[in-house]
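so my prof wants the structure for this chain in the tokens format not the other one, which i didnt know existed until like an hour ago. anyway here's the sequence
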Amino acid sequence: MKTSILKTPAKINLFLKITGKRPDGYHNIYTLFQKISLFDSLEIGVQPGPHKINLVCSDPSLPSNSSNLAWRAAELFLTKSGLNGSISIKLDKEIPAGAGLGGGSSDAAAVLKGLNKLYGNPLDQEELLTMGKALGADVPFFITNWNAAIGTETGTNLRPVQPSNSYYVLVWPGFSVSTKWAYENFILTSNKETTIFGPGQGFDKAFLWQNDLEKAVFKRYPVLQEIKFRLKQAGAVYTLMSGSGSVIFGEFSDKDSAIKGLSLLPADQTWKTYVVNGLQ
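here's what i got, hopefully its the right format
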């Protein structure tokens, strides 16, 4: 059996602007993705045999069948490549699910890239990106080797930018937020408002630390607003919700400041906290 062990990073969104609703029901966005030093681990094995996929996940709350994005990525790879084989996937989760950190998308991207390498690279980068788009809007970013990128359209139109070298404290409140629900409950601001940015605009630091989904999500989950306040009190320069939530993160100038800020947060048994840095 050929095997590959991979670390799959999480991401945060340093800003997320919604620029319009699409005819297909999805939304166009303008966002800045940044990969961070929080990882899941994947062990992928391939051996000759009939078309078969076996997934074992360390998180019992997550499915180990075709409802899991990593499983679907393996199925899609075999279908699109026309190859056969018995695939085993062992997934050790550290990135919380439904947190706005892209853990499932990162795992799926790693499965596509890992299988492609194990099978001798039968597919090129564009083919992998096309498959990634079919799996989810965040997957193409994780297929690229870029540590930071501007994303437009549904987040799948990407261009690299200089990654952040900041440290961040992440707070996961102990529950997930449905991405579908967050977008359905977002009320699109008029294009005349200064909070809407055209997708053709270049990256500008003035756009950082804004997330159009916060208002709707905070209304339903007020504890997330409290976490933002607590991070600010603990010394964060900026705070923001990542993606559609539920993780709130704060930026700190260096690792020591982040560790100190973490120590100043109130003890809460339901919260899980992390100190991470932007991948360079």
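also thought this was worth mentioning. Residues 189-203 have pLDDT under 50 and may be disordered.
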